[in-house]
Amino acid sequence: MQPRHLPPPLSQSRPCGPAQARLWSGAALSPRAETGDRACPLQPWAAALLVLVLVAVGCSPYQVRSLNRPEVPVSTTYHHALDGEREIGRWWQEFNNPALNTTVASALDNSLDLRQLWSRLTQAYAQARIEGAEVFPWVDLSGGAARTHQVDRDPRDPFGGQAGSSTRITHADRYFVSTGLSYEIDVWKRIAARRRAATLEYQASRQDLEASALLLTGSVVDVWFILQEQKALLALLQEQIEISQELLDLTEVRFGVGAGSAVDVLQQRQQLEATRAEIPLVRSRLNTTYNQLAVLLGTTPGALDTRIPDGVLPDLPPFPQLGEPATLLVSRPDLRSAQLRLQAADFRVATAVAERLPRLVLDLSYEFSARSFSTVFRQEVGSLVGNLVAPVIDGGLRRNQVVRHKALTQELLDRFGQQYLQALLEIEDALVRERFQVELIANLESQIGLARSTLRESQSRYVNGLINYVTVLLAVQSLQGLQRRLISERRFLLSNRAGLYRALGGHWTNELTAPPSLQLAQVAAARIRP
Description:
Helix content is 53%, strand content 12%. The chain has eleven helices and five strands, in the order E-H-H-H-E-E-H-H-H-H-H-E-E-H-H-H.
């Protein structure tokens, strides 16, 4: 579900064109500098005018479009879809590994990349409030005091140097309190369009955060599977080294009794060392992957507990329910973000169109002033001014702003379509890879069974002196290579399924909350409700 719009924003400065003409300025005022009369200085017709203008209903000169779907042809089903009835939520839990679930939860809480996005969401929230502030009247209150010092010198002695010259010094005090209100009547819905655009962009920032959280979980799961793969390979290599050592012992015994040759012993020793040489490579990747996971979890590389994971790859979960391709528009946060930014861009067009039309601004001021502070509220002056301001010459600035925003909207519409096609591509490719990866793994398992049988038969014939050791050596190398490849291909199958889950998206990201340490982000996040 898309998040709802913000409450009314608070503050934004009013733009002013380079060349404007004040077409009409009327002052509805009746100032009275009286000491005792406290009656309202505004004439009844001025108050009536104010009420009439405030209840005026504006209209936008630009019809904002409903840009909710990309303009690309889409089928109603996936071409390579498999049967699946299982709906998924937090997709990594499908692999049924408690340690993996704990690791992903830790990443969502502690990732520094995600914390940055929470702060950006706070910035977007504040910007939306800033841009929407113009919907409210602006009220200023000021007060002050002034003292005037006046010296009147004798014209016969302007410099006051002669004795007995006449010089008069007087002082005048003035105290005042004034208030002013300025409000633009949104005749053409310019302010409303800009406010709505800012709100949509803020909501898009939330979707960006959710998309990053989805990618973060994918990265953690991929790294987790690589760790398990390397752990499993390490255990397999230890087992293969033991088997190769037994074969070396056998060749040495046969060489000792004259039934084998030195070449057999050397070949087996070389095969054993080749297997041992794989261990540094696996350990190197294992430790660098631990470092990568540590950074994803927001901690120092090398500080992660290297006892995890257990080195056992999980089974492939049941196939998920795919739904129709159109559901991606609401299930993928990156597409939701693109949709919101596209709608915001169209509201920016409406704003740019309205900027070319006259603006009606009301200014109301009221001032109390007196010569002494105790009587400051006895003299009052009030004024109500309505200004109709329209741009006349701006060098084509506003016209080209409309052109620019329309072109930007079209760009975002095409980008929205491209992102949607890319999402479909990710799913279709994942479906194709899984189908053929399952076939590949089944073929590898069959080959491993045959390789074991070949090795047993070769060993039997070698012991009986029917074949040379090269046949046994080839059988060992073939079996061990297939076993290592099977582990890697199983890991790839799991990573591909994880990629399918990510491509399908989901609504679990709506439940994300800001870390407790980011108080401002918590306030911003609370403004978005699913």
